[in-house]
Amino acid sequence: MNREDYDRYAAAFNARDYDAVFDFYAENPQMAFFGIEIRTREQLREFYSFLHKYVRETVTVEKFASSPELVAVEGLIRLEGIKDLTREELDSRGMQQFFPVTAGEVQEMRQYIHYHMKDGKIASVGCAIVP
């Protein structure tokens, strides 16, 4: 995956085109972040459809490096609350590691994301947030 490919991936994510996002993934991907595991197209759609009812999330890529086996991204994740997302709602979805967001609130965080590649597709994803 080169930078042009990744820009298309990020644009699909920012546009909430979950099917286009999942098309970048290998069969049976392993996505695990902040206590959430996603392995299917439907799980990806369900997770982000829920989250994006409450927040407008955008990814801005600041640094990018790639090889045939790994894509590494450093970027800014911006969450803008569009509807109150409460602690209770998060907990009921098993999202204890996520923070509540109120309508109008903006949270920005630096995130490091590693995509392990297999045959040009994303096989697994790992990420970390820097406070």
UniProtKB/TrEMBL annotation:
Coiled coil: none annotated. This is Nuclear transport factor 2 family protein. Residues 7-124 form the SnoaL-like domain. It holds the Pfam family SnoaL_2. InterPro entries: NTF2-like_dom_sf (IPR032710), SnoaL-like (IPR037401).
